[in-house]
């Protein structure tokens, strides 16, 4: 299989719109969790050049580091802790324009400046979170939320249905 997710347009919404159908094709034939999440992080990294992009999965009452692209990261996050643990508890997307202003932010990398965390939902149940970090302030907005929630929904449909 050859799949290139490299993009030339600079318009963010357009990039997501081009990304989604390609991404759906990439993951639609596979249900193995680790494999799908590994390809999902590779595709997101290639398409958008994120500083850190990856998954934490709910296991034994905490979040455990899953497949990702970027620097080595923390293994475990407790419920309600950090941006990821809060997104899990509240079952909603969190956009953090400046991680230093988020009480309890967990700094896996000191270079991380802003962050978006999107829960992966199977019905009401949070199965894990998609976490994306930037080394710039204010990198994520409602466009990211809108499309990354679609990415999370596609992942949930593929793996957990
Ligand atoms: N900053 C996250 C921890 C995960 S790393 O960014 C990869 C948090 O506060 O939950």
CATH architectural type: 2-Layer Sandwich
Structural class: alpha+beta
Q: Measure the end-to-end span.
A: 24 Å
Any idea what the CATH superfamily is called? Answer: GAF domain
- CATH class, please? Alpha Beta
Keywords, separated by commas or semicolons:
single chain; globular; binds methionine sulfoxide; Beta-Lactamase; 4 helices; alpha+beta; 161 residues
What's the short story on this structure?
This protein has four helices and six strands. The chain has 161 residues and is α+β, with helices and mostly antiparallel strands. The protein has one domain (12-159): 2-Layer Sandwich (Beta-Lactamase).
Question: Can you tell me about this structure?
Answer:
The protein starts with 11 loop residues before the first helix and ends with a helix. Helix 1 runs antiparallel to helix 2 and helix 1 packs parallel to helix 4. Strand 2 and strand 3 form a beta hairpin. The chain is 37% helix and 25% strand. By secondary structure, it is an alpha+beta fold. It has a single domain (12-159), classed as Beta-Lactamase (2-Layer Sandwich), CATH 3.30.450.40. The chain has helices at 12-27, 33-48, 82-90, 142-160, and strands at 52-59, 62-69, 76-78, 94-96, 114-122, 125-134. The mean pLDDT is 95. It is built from four helices and six strands; from the N terminus they run H-H-E-E-E-H-E-E-E-H. Bound molecules: methionine sulfoxide.
């Amino acid at each position: 299989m050859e799949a290139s997710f490299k993009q030339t347009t600079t318009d963010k919404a357009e990039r997501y719109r081009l990304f989604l159908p390609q991404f759906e094709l990439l993951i639609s034939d596979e249900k193995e969790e680790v494999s799908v999440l590994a390809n999902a992080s590779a595709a997101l990294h290639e398409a958008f050049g994120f500083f850190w992009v990856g998954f934490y999965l709910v296991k034994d009452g905490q979040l455990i580091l899953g497949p990702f692209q970027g620097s080595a990261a923390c293994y475990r996050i407790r419920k309600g802790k950090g941006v990821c643990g809060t997104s899990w508890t509240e079952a909603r997307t969190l956009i953090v324009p400046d991680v230093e202003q988020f009480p309890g932010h967990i700094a896996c990398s000191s270079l991380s400046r802003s962050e978006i965390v999107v829960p992966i939902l199977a019905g009401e149940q949070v199965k894990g979170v998609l976490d994306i970090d930037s080394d710039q302030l204010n990198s994520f907005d409602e466009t990211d939320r809108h499309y990354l929630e679609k990415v999370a929904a596609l992942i949930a449909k593929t793996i957990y249905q």
